């Protein structure tokens, strides 16, 4: 029908008025058929496609508004959509009268909210809704009451300050009545049965529990029947918004500051605490405390009801959902009143003992863990078994449960500070927690961006770095674990895979068990990493493994940024050794290896710039790495940075321990590598060395020679030979002519500098007082002014 509506959007105003008149006649008919629906759809399209909000003719506006109370929902939907696109009639702005409220349904509620243009309008709507709750049931249609709480809940979300103190008190009282005193007989004319059952012989039938037993206590959301009364529906709605209400209305009270003062004056404070602790006569309490008490009782009853054996799976799911909500509400009321903690904990402990062995209740157990975290210390309760479950079995056995992964990681993020200070198991559990990331990296990487810094400590940093580097291996291992338990492991093409056999092989089992460990502390890494990488080589193109590998560089940046803020030099030294070692010990995913080396390079520079003495501390390992010619071809990125670090920071000005002997040994190691790569053909299968590597080696040699003048003749001899060799044209170690010219030019610059050793040292290794202040940029000194004056003079000429 919408193609007709498109034509209507460009009709003249006169034709539009005719369309309005025709629609009014249609709406006056007794039967509203398809033609009416088509016309309403066209009207909605016209209104929504118009630039400015229109005002409908009054008669049409009233007719469309009357459709909100139509028994047919599609007319409710259409009328609500049309009215949201129009301006209210003049004088009816914010006019929330009893008639509007009496027509209340979900679509009318949306309309009322959309027409509230200000906080005053919301307050007016709120007052009218609450007035309808105070009215006698005969004055308000039954169906409208059930929509009142949802719209109030929405207003509470949008603008909680719209509720006055009186509103809060009234709703506290109504919630108490609906939660605790709903009728316990079935609604809808349920019969007790019998052959002669008729209208006069119908007897009230009590509601039942989910296991079929007759309810022996007050009505809750877990009571069942053939029909429900109005107050029973309000009981359900009240429970659904209860936690939100408890969490929000205190902010309203704190804003106004006077709520419940009249009620409090009626009850002595000592009496309140006694009644709250004994839970007997809640009627004596003011509305706020009374609601808290009744909420507490309601949740305890739900926990008792959840132990009953439900006949249907949907009822079992309902029990789990209600348990989650009940425990969260108990946590909320215990936060408000600490005396309730001691009454709640026996029930919570019993519930945990009942559910902890069944992982199908994992999402219920997380709110229980939250309760233990918030109140366990106060109640002096041992929480060890809770954290073993949350940080042990959950990630180890349910890493492929997406819902649990989301909720557990959200739990960790919300409670990060408390977990760091009060739960030592948290930082030790990173091998387990990272299984969520290894299994489904795109879905949870944002969570780990927030969580990873909290897992980095002096005791875990080295092992955590190894674990992050091995995340693709962990991803592959988890896939093998899942496949081995549920499916025969084979590729679609039928080709046999080596990795599943290795996973089952007892001789390799230790490698996989280390990857699947649950806690830190069993060792930073394993000796046979290269063997593990060979066994998992065929998994390098598996989608989960590839996705996991793509997230590792980001996490490594976060890891190093965290480490560098508070780590001592000893830890940084250890991490440099790990970077050098692991640069060649990675699962063979080409792009992954390049990215990891890029990350290592950037942070190696940061470490050494922050602590130049690290170069002397780790000089043996750095020289061993820089002296291996093979690294020039396989690890060009990190190799170049290691050479630059040696040339830059191996100096007495950076560390007094730097001796001439150390400078000479470094010079000889780099000289041998440079001579080898510029006098021979690259190894089979390898590309020519990158020009950046060659120029960095030349610069490093020149820097070292400028600090030990005995070495200058050796550098000068090499540079002159280099110029002579390249005069003949192309060379075997450089295939690009432009690159070769750049290398030779750099060599000539260095050769010219080294002719004047004093100048060379000043240029190649300027002292800190020259580089640090940067006088040419400092606006507080005369140097920039002089430079600008000289520049202007030279330009003018």
TrEMBL record:
<protein>
    <submittedName>
        <fullName>Adaptor related protein complex 5 subunit zeta 1</fullName>
    </submittedName>
</protein>
<feature type="domain" description="AP-5 complex subunit zeta-1 ARM repeats">
    <location>
        <begin position="318"/>
        <end position="435"/>
    </location>
</feature>
<dbReference type="InterPro" id="IPR055450">
    <property type="entry name" value="AP5Z1_ARM"/>
</dbReference>
<feature type="domain" description="AP-5 complex subunit zeta-1 N-terminal TPR">
    <location>
        <begin position="7"/>
        <end position="277"/>
    </location>
</feature>
<dbReference type="InterPro" id="IPR028222">
    <property type="entry name" value="AP5Z1"/>
</dbReference>
<dbReference type="Pfam" id="PF14764">
    <property type="entry name" value="SPG48"/>
</dbReference>
<dbReference type="Pfam" id="PF25153">
    <property type="entry name" value="TPR_AP5Z1"/>
</dbReference>
<dbReference type="Pfam" id="PF25154">
    <property type="entry name" value="TPR_AP5Z1_C"/>
</dbReference>
<feature type="domain" description="AP-5 complex subunit zeta-1 C-terminal TPR">
    <location>
        <begin position="447"/>
        <end position="793"/>
    </location>
</feature>
<dbReference type="InterPro" id="IPR056857">
    <property type="entry name" value="TPR_AP5Z1_N"/>
</dbReference>
<dbReference type="GO" id="GO:0044599">
    <property type="term" value="C:AP-5 adaptor complex"/>
</dbReference>
<dbReference type="InterPro" id="IPR056856">
    <property type="entry name" value="TPR_AP5Z1_C"/>
</dbReference>
């Amino acid at each position: 029908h919408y193609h007709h509506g498109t034509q209507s959007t460009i009709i003249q105003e006169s034709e539009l008025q005719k369309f309005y008149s025709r629609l009014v006649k249609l709406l006056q008919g007794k039967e509203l058929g398809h033609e009416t629906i088509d016309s309403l759809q066209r009207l909605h399209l016209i209104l929504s496609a118009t630039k400015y909000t229109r005002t409908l003719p009054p008669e049409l506006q009233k007719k469309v508004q009357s459709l909100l109370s139509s028994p047919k929902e599609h007319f409710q939907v259409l009328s609500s959509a049309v009215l949201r696109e129009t301006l209210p009639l003049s004088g009816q702005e914010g006019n929330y009268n009893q008639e509007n409220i009496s027509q209340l349904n979900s679509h009318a509620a949306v309309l009322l909210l959309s027409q509230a243009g200000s906080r005053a309008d919301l307050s007016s709507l709120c007052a009218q809704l609450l007035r309808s709750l105070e009215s006698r049931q005969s004055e308000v249609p039954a169906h409208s009451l059930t929509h009142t709480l949802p719209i109030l809940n929405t207003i509470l979300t949008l603008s909680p300050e719209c509720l006055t103190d009186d509103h809060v008190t009234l709703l506290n009282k109504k919630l108490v009545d609906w939660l605790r005193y709903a009728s316990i007989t079935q609604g809808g004319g349920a019969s007790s049965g019998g052959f002669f059952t008729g209208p006069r012989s119908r007897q009230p039938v009590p509601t039942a529990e989910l296991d079929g037993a007759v309810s022996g206590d007050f009505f809750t959301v877990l009571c069942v029947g053939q029909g429900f009364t109005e107050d029973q529906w309000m009981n359900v709605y009240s429970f659904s918004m209860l936690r939100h209400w408890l969490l929000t209305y205190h902010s309203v009270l704190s804003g106004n500051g006077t709520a419940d003062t009249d009620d409090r004056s009626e009850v002595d404070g000592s009496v309140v605490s006694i009644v709250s602790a004994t839970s007997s006569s809640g009627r004596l309490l003011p509305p706020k405390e009374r609601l808290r008490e009744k909420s507490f009782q309601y949740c305890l009853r739900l926990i008792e009801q959840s132990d009953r054996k439900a006949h249907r799976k949907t009822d079992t799911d309902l029990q789990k959902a209600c348990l989650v909500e009940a425990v969260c509400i108990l946590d909320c009321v215990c936060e408000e009143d600490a005396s309730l903690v001691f009454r709640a904990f026996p029930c919570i402990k019993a519930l945990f003992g009942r559910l902890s062995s069944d992982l199908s209740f994992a999402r219920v157990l997380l709110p229980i863990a939250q309760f233990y975290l918030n109140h366990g210390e106060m109640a002096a309760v041992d929480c060890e078994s809770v954290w073993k479950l949350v940080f042990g079995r959950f990630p180890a056995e349910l890493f492929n449960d997406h819902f649990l992964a989301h909720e557990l990681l959200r739990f960790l993020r919300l409670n990060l500070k408390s977990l760091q200070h009060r739960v030592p198991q948290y930082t030790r559990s990173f091998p387990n927690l990272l299984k969520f990331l290894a299994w489904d990296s795109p879905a949870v990487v944002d969570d780990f961006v927030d969580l990873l810094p909290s897992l980095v400590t002096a005791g875990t940093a080295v092992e955590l770095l190894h674990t992050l580097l091995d995340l693709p291996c962990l991803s592959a291992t988890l896939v093998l674990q899942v496949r081995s338990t549920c499916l025969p492991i084979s590729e679609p093409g039928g080709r046999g895979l080596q990795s599943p056999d290795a996973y089952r092989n007892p001789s390799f089992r230790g490698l996989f068990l280390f990857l699947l460990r649950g806690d830190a502390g069993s060792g930073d890494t394993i000796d046979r990493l290269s063997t593990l990488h060979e066994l998992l080589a065929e998994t390098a193109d598996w989608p989960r493994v590839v996705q996991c590998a793509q997230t590792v560089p980001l996490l490594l940046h976060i890891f190093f940024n965290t480490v560098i803020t508070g780590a001592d030099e000893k830890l940084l030294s250890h991490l440099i050794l790990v970077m050098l070692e692991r640069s060649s010990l990675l699962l063979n995913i080409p792009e992954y290896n390049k990215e990891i080396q890029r990350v290592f390079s950037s942070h190696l520079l940061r470490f050494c710039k922050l602590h130049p003495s690290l170069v002397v501390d780790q000089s043996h390992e750095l020289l061993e790495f820089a002296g291996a010619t093979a690294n020039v071809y396989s690890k060009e990125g990190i190799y170049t940075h290691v050479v630059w670090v040696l040339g830059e920071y191996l100096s007495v000005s950076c560390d007094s321990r730097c001796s001439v002997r150390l400078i000479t040994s470094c010079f000889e190691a780099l000289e041998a590598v440079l001579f080898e790569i510029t006098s021979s053909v690259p190894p089979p299968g390898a590309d020519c060395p990158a020009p950046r590597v060659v120029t960095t080696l030349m610069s490093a040699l020149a820097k070292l020679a400028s600090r030990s003048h005995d070495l200058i003749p050796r550098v000068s001899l090499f540079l002159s030979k280099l110029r002579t060799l390249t005069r003949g044209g192309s060379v075997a170690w450089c295939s690009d002519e432009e690159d070769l010219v750049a290398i030779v030019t750099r060599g000539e610059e260095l050769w010219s500098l080294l002719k004047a050793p004093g100048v060379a040292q000043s240029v190649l290794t300027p002292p800190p007082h020259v580089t640090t202040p940067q006088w040419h940029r400092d606006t507080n000194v005369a140097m920039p002014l002089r430079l600008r004056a000289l520049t202007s003079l030279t330009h003018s000429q």
